[in-house]
Amino acid sequence: MVAAAPIVCSFPTASELTEALADFVIKAQKEAIEKKGRFTIALSGGSLPKQLSALAKRTGVKWDKWQVFYADERAVPLDHPDSNHQLCTAEFYSKVPLPPANIHTLDPALLDDLEELADAYEKQLIHEFAQKDAARFPVFDLILLGMGPDGHTASLFPGHALLSEEDRWVAYVDDSPKPPPRRITLTFPVINHAARVAFVAAGESKQDVLKTVLDKPEEGLPASRVRPASPGQLYWFVDDAAAAKVEYPKTPFKL
After folding, report:
1. H/E element, 21
2. In which pathway does it act (predicted)?
3. Where are the beta strands (DSSP E) in 147-187?
4. pLDDT by residue (tens digit) across 15-71?
5. Per-position b or e across 76-92, b if 16+ CB within 10 A of its CB
6. d(C-alpha 206, C-alpha 208), whole Å
7. How far apart are CA 103 and CA 172, in angstroms?
8. Residue 139 CB contacts under 8 Å (≥ 6 apart), including other chains
9. How far is it, in rounded angstroms, from Cα 87 to Cα 93?
């Protein structure tokens, strides 16, 4: 699998990063809708939902064309404080007219059986993608990811067996080193088949791990393993505080 080199865009402030990310999402949406009439996006938790709320002030967002999935989700009720869906609802969905039917959540009736939970979520992906795109793996228009201090992304953790998963679209985790332990996650084959993947990382706390991921990819941290196959492209949206130690070349942000 041939992967293009990551494009790293660094911004003086976190607010400038947020505005550029909004521009980027709108462009990805526009191109996807022009090409196939819909926009498929996978979201993460953390600070990302709050950053996406900047889209509420933008024109040109065709919310009815969005199909939203989660890069990973915790096996908790949808209104639980640990739920990525609850976080996205509070910080993002509540501020924009995104149709609830276009938001694909896990099935809360299956929380007691992680394998069933992951299978059911994979079936949602199959319904959205396999019948329309006829691909071995779904091809998201955009996957937005964060990165933990250990280099994990989604719920793909260093040293975990899921790093070598090659077949499943959605897998479960019952031993996450970060609570809560029970989760479902998109796998690397799905992430690396996306048309665009964008990491968002800001703040001094990300300096060391960002340097490792970008300057020493051979160390194999999960975030380093995100390398979409050509013609897919990987972007990093970072602020100068996070990128202070990175030697990897930065690229001026252009739409």
Report:
1. helix 14-36
2. Carbohydrate degradation; pentose phosphate pathway; D-ribulose 5-phosphate from D-glucose 6-phosphate (oxidative stage): step 2/3
3. 170-173, 183-186
4. 999 999 999 999 999 999 999 999 999 999 999 999 999 999 999 999 999 999 999
5. beeeeebbbbbbbbbbb
6. 6
7. 20
8. 129, 133, 193, 194, 195
9. 9
CATH top class, domain 7-201+214-239? alpha beta
pLDDT in tens, 200-255: 999 999 999 999 999 999 999 999 999 998 889 999 999 999 999 999 999 999 87
Helix residue ranges per DSSP H, 37-194: 48-52, 84-91, 114-125, 131-133, 188-191
Residue 186's closest CA among 173, 198, 177? 173
Say what the pLDDT of residue 3 is.
81
- What tokens does 98 get? 């995104």
Residues 6+ apart with CB under 8 A from 34: none
Q: Which letter does DSSP use for residue 87 in this model? A: H
Rounded CA separation 237/50 (Å): 15
Please state the φ and ψ torsions of residue 224, each to the nearest 5 degrees: -70, -20
Contact present, 21 and 59 (Cβ < 8 Å):
no
Q: In this predicted structure, what is the pLDDT of residue 255?
A: 78
Q: Angle CA(181)–CA(149)–CA(254) in degrees, nearest 5? A: 120
Which stretches within 55-206 are classed as H helix? 84-91, 114-125, 131-133, 188-191
Contact between residue 83 and residue 49 where contact means Cβ atoms under 8 Å apart? no
Report how far residue 23's alpha carbon sits from residue 64's, in angstroms, rounded to the nearest whole number. 18
Tell me the residue type at 26.
I
d(CA 28, CA 69): 16
